[in-house]
User: Fold this.
Amino acid sequence: MHSGHTLTIESDPKPADRSVVERGLEAFNHQHAGDSHHQPLCVFVRDSAGNVLGGLLGDTYYGWLAINLLWLDEAWRGHGYGRMLLRAAEAEAIGRGCHHAHVDTLSFQALDFYLGAGYTVFGELAGLPPGYTRYFLQKPLAAHGS
Assistant:
């Protein structure tokens, strides 16, 4: 390492420092793959007072929907709201020109839910977390609709 340079490990970095890395990678990717057309995509279930009962947080980029988080309050599980969140996100992604979706889930979370919604496993990591498996799934959107 050059004289005067340091390497730091930080659990709570400044947003501006994170942004330098994010913008740098975005510029590099743009050189090789073109504009990602990145957009956040969030869908929420709210009660009559506007309180969030659950939601799906994701992004669309390079023609893909990335489902980052999908959660429902336990009282609202099993009533079709998860399926509605997923279908709404997929429909919006298709409207944005996406042709595929991807998600990961842990073996104690929602593997059967995603399999039932037409997602297929393309990879897994055993022991993440210990005693469980992390599954990576994908689904073509345009061919199957939402």
